[in-house]
Amino acid sequence: MILIALFISLGLYALIVTLLYIRQRRLTQHIITSATRIVSRPAGQIDDSEQRFLEKADEAMRLTQTFQKFVPRQFVEHFAKHGNDTLELGRAAEDEVAILLCDIRGFSGLSEQMSPQELMNFLNSYFLRMNDPIHQNGGFIDKFIGDAIMALFNHPGGDGRAKALDAVRAAIDLQQALKIYNAHRANVGYAGISVGVGIHFGPVILGTVGSDDRMDTTVIGDSVNVAFRLESLAPKYHADIVVSAQTLSIIGEASDIQYRVLDWVRVKGRRSPVRVYEVLNHLDEPIRQNKLMIQHDIEQGLACRIARDFPTALTHFHRALSRIPGDPVVSYHIDTCQQLMQLTIPQDWDGSVSA
């Protein structure tokens, strides 16, 4: 009986929250329409009751804006797209979206140098600047995870290509916004920061989880795990933006996105390996051209490594290194091949390395 009562209370709680949210949206829209008609009249024709109505309209708008800070409008609209106008606990819907993860490199060391208030000021200043590139490219921030940002791109009325392209363009704009932010930090004597971005496109489950006194929206699935792992690879390959082959495949060749292959990796928690790429559009022209110059050598070397032909793979990688000395990706592949040559390779090895 206690369990049944608990479930009933849980359901009622979620229902009340959802109804209040939906009612608030509808009421706000009605109030805005009515307030617009009143404001359009000359000031002398607005009586006291109508003035109080306008004040209530302002209050309703502020309340709605507060709701949207905790529950993204796009999340609610996603459920509405699937015919669900409720956001009760346990609601779930499946869709294909692009997931973007953005994380500050070396954040732990950076945070140790700040007081708690300085750390909060820094994070809010940083998040404020990272917010706009995401929204301007049709995405929305699902959650902040410490210093990390998780954003979703579910282009309204668009196909998979539009979603993936939005996410990649947002990542490019994030890096451009970071350059401006670092210039401001330099002006006041602070060191610049760098961020790594990971992007993957695929199916996810969007829903609500929680308990009887706390509910939150969430996104789960293999695609989310891959996006997290790709972001963690950014410092390993000294890359700013790491994307999966699936993301680039759905975008197709008819785009202005420039990239080069990084590796063929097996990410933790996933059976199938993933081919990963580095997006280059945000880099200065000389750097971008150097990376593109040796991409064919890297592709050939990687193909030979997968085929277990390590000596030929090293030939390709050394040629790339002679053309662009100091490229960290090429140096990494040379070290990897040399290590593999010292090991007994299993018969079922698929050519991937652990990420």
Tell me the layout of helices and strands.
Blueprint: H1 2-39, H2 48-70, H3 73-81, E1 92-104, H4 107-112, H5 116-136, E2 139-145, E3 148-153, H6 160-187, E4 195-210, E5 215-220, H7 222-233, E6 241-244, H8 245-251, E7 259-266, E8 274-279, H9 285-293, H10 295-306, H11 310-323, H12 328-340, E9 353-354
Parallel strand pairs: 4-6, 7-9
Antiparallel strand pairs: 1-3, 1-4, 2-3, 4-5, 6-8, 7-8
Helix pairs in contact: 1-2, 5-6, 6-8, 10-11, 11-12
Structure description:
Helices cover 54% and strands 19% of the residues. It contains 12 helices and 9 strands. The protein has helices at 2-39, 48-70, 73-81, 107-112, 116-136, 160-187, 222-233, 245-251, 285-293, 295-306, 310-323, 328-340, and strands spanning 92-104, 139-145, 148-153, 195-210, 215-220, 241-244, 259-266, 274-279, 353-354. Helix 1 crosses helix 2 and helix 10 packs antiparallel against helix 11.
Defining key terms:
single chain, 355 residues, alpha+beta, globular, disordered N terminus
Fraction in beta strands: 15-25%
Tell me, briefly, the overall form: globular
Give me the strand/helix succession.
HHHEHHEEHEEHEHEEHHHHE
Largest sheet, in brief, is: 9 strands, mixed
Mean pLDDT: 82
Q: What is the CA-based Rg, rounded? A: 25 Å
Tell me the total number of β-strands. 9
Task: For the record, give the distance between the C-alpha atoms at the N and C termini, rounded to a whole number.
Answer: 49 Å
Low-confidence stretches: 1-22
Number of helices: 12
Q: Helix proportion of residues, in percent?
A: 40-55%
Query: Could you say which structural class the secondary elements and strand pairing correspond to?
Result: alpha+beta
